[in-house]
Amino acid sequence: MEANAAASTSADWIQGGYVDWQLARDYRPTILVVGFRKLSQLISVVSPEFASSARIEILDFVFEKDVTINSILQYQHADVVVSAGSNSEYLKQRIDLPVLSLPVSDRDIIKALGTASALENRIMMISNGDHSDILEALTPLFSADIDHARYETADEARAMVYLAVKKGYPLIIGSSYVCSLAEQENVKSLLLYSSESCRTLIQDAIAVGITAQTRKLTRRAKQAALANNSVATLITDPSGELLAYDRSQLESLGMNDTHKISQAASQLHLALQDIERENQRASVIINQQPCLAKRFLCSPEQPEQGYVYTLRTGGDSEEPVERDRAAAAGVASDNGKLQYRSETMAKIDQLVSAYARTRGTVLITGESGTGKELVAREIHQRSNFRNGEFIAINCGAIPEELFESELFGYADGAFTASRKGGRTGLLQAAHNGVFFLDEISELPLTQQAKILRIIQERKLRPLGTNKEIPLNVKFVCASNRDLAQLVADGRFRQDLYYRLNVLNLQIPPLHQRRQDILPIADWLLLTQARDYGIDIPVDAILEHLGATLQAYSWPGNVRELENVTERIVTHLIGHDTAASLHDWLPHIAPELYADVNQSTAPSRQSAGKTAAAQTPLREAEMEMIMTALQRFDGNRARAAKHLGISATTLWRRLRQADR
Length: 659
What we know:
Blueprint: H1 3-6, H2 10-15, H3 21-25, E1 30-35, H4 38-46, E2 55-60, H5 70-73, E3 80-83, H6 85-94, E4 99-101, H7 106-117, E5 122-127, H8 132-138, E6 145-150, H9 154-166, E7 171-174, H10 176-184, E8 188-191, H11 195-227, E9 232-236, E10 242-245, H12 247-251, H13 258-272, E11 281-286, E12 289-297, E13 307-313, H14 320-329, H15 343-356, E14 362-365, H16 372-382, E15 390-394, H17 403-408, E16 409-410, E17 423-424, H18 426-429, E18 434-438, H19 445-457, E19 459-460, E20 469-470, E21 474-479, H20 483-488, H21 494-500, E22 503-506, H22 517-532, H23 538-551, H24 557-573, H25 581-588, H26 607-631, H27 636-643, H28 647-658
Parallel strand pairs: 1-2, 1-3, 3-4, 5-6, 5-7, 7-8, 14-21, 14-22, 15-18, 18-21
Antiparallel strand pairs: 9-10, 9-13, 11-12, 12-13, 16-17, 19-20
Organism: Kineobactrum sediminis
InterPro entries: AAA+_ATPase, AAA_lid_NorR, Homeodomain-like_sf, HTH_Fis, P-loop_NTPase, Sig_transdc_resp-reg_PrpR_N, Sigma_54_int, Sigma_54_int_dom_ATP-bd_1
Protein name: Sigma-54 factor interaction domain-containing protein
């Protein structure tokens, strides 16, 4: 690799990042095809041509109702989604991944009309796009009578097919879904798309997928550089071969040619290759200078993409800022992501390490927003299962009809519209790892029995087969409800409760451990500022606002604190000093000044009083949620991210509002 091809200026690095295109060219993006029958079959025919360039997964699905789709798509690990018709429009509004729509070209229309007119004298074309201009020009060229109808949703498509059948059209041209509806009415159908259009779509998707992955790697490298105040940053492939670096930074270490930098990359790879967890450091000598080095995965989800290495001069001493903050918080600087100062959380941290060493099931309980999933991930990182996957599901978000196929997987031909070749279930994907069942209390009783058997037997049987597959999995569950009370009420199986409650972690609400508020706020402010790419005076902010933050009762716990700190960070983008926050905080976080939430350790003598006191807060919260949903056209994932809450909490709040 030439020096000029791999280098960038420091300004370029901070503003937009730089990743050498050699990395991107070697990357095979994962393309998720969301199609239906004929379209899926058509893409299946052309997809082998792209086997060396992309991983193509096909999901037969039509979004006929306003269903939750993140529970389906989040497990695909896709870089880009391709679809057609109403499916693509639905997906574009509801997921954060790039979505490409299969275009209908003029050539496709001409070819379809030519074939159709040779078969029938009356033709109805039903499409998702407006093709009136070309149809007006083409209609005189064919002997058949040609009509056209346009739809926006799957329900509209169904209605138009019904009308076409009633009017006696013997042949319908349209999308795969339209063709399927026509065939159900015993009417001939012709697919509007062609294999040429599918090839073009896949080629475009590969380019978009590579670009998306490159941006992910760039963000990861940028975050590592900013988080560690590094003198130099390098990117290597998994074997330690240099891929990209910041030339201006490395010149400060006396390395101004590619050969020296490649040697440094190999040296870093050897020095840190035995370190299993990220954010751990090692002392190295680079170009005769003592340095502190750290290694990060370019992409935590895809370790084959290589590593980001950061360097600081100064030998084996810790970074001053990190050391001082760790001492102030009363915790070790590399204790994972658990931030605390209270004795209560110190004991929980010890239990996390102890429970991680066992194979026993762990039940984590606590109010919503206390960080139960974060604790579960720490158990995974500290356990003997850390080299396996951490698979998390929300038991209340998976539709009951998809529960078994999602968790257990299925064999080829297990049911109508099942994917050819079958599918690996989430439980099997967690083999040798940790399987986290969030909101376990929301499982219907019928599904509780199936989970009980899996936990007891440590075996699963995919749908459509009698073969049992052994599982080596550590189960971690979480609930914000009293499972013992649910057992007493007959809404939770007693045998499952006893099976889950082997090792118990009770995470206290934030108002019961006020010593942890400032350490958590400190960590959140640093992390969010890094994500926004800005520097903020964290110590000055906490000096001005610490008393206010500690006085609030935090009914939403750590998640609510995260929401408030992000508002502070975004406010500081347009304001110069932390001192101005005193004037602005009542406007950007009015809940902190509500009389019902003031004082230290607020009284919670009765559930009725608490509910009544929090009614204004809930109303304000719902107003913010609805505003965010309108802003992002109903996309719940983007709305939740904007609000600083998880998608699960957003779903729960909306469900509570419907009651």
